[in-house]
């Protein structure tokens, strides 16, 4: 019986302590997209990604131009096909058609590889920046005693009434001027 009373007292104590803690929780929100756009590192990363993407696009355009030349040569050769040279020209056309098919396959493989390399490069370039922003947000949240920080740039946040906008605090933590206007991402 004494154990039951002790358990009940402990349970009531924990319940009351839990309610007290819940009443003291603080909420905050931040627009992470605006934060990221205000970070100087993001501009350098965007430039680096644009250069990389243009390089891959140029490679694909060169392959496309070479493919177009082969198709044009095939069409010109096909125009010379006559009854007298049918056997010889038909073999040449068959060889050219195979080269064109092989080139189309290489182009597709190169395109797929380029997409993978671009995705990998994005991960490599943007991950450290996102990690830095996330660390700053967590640090500010802990310093200011926030239990929850919501990202207001996400479409899933339907309504915010109350809480504190910690964007300026996080910018200060990162050494970014709080008045720096965010430049829209292209």
UniProtKB/TrEMBL annotation:
Coiled-coil positions: 86-124
GO CC terms: cytosol
Keywords annotated in UniProt: Coiled coil, Signal
Gene3D superfamilies on file: Skp domain
One BP annotation, GO: protein stabilization
Signal peptide: 1-23
SMART domains membership: OmpH
GO molecular function: unfolded protein binding
Keyword set includes Cell inner membrane: no
KW Cell cycle (keyword) present: no
Entry's family note: Belongs to the Skp family.
PANTHER family assigned to the protein according to its UniProt record, in alphabetical order: CHAPERONE PROTEIN SKP
The protein, known as: OmpH family outer membrane protein
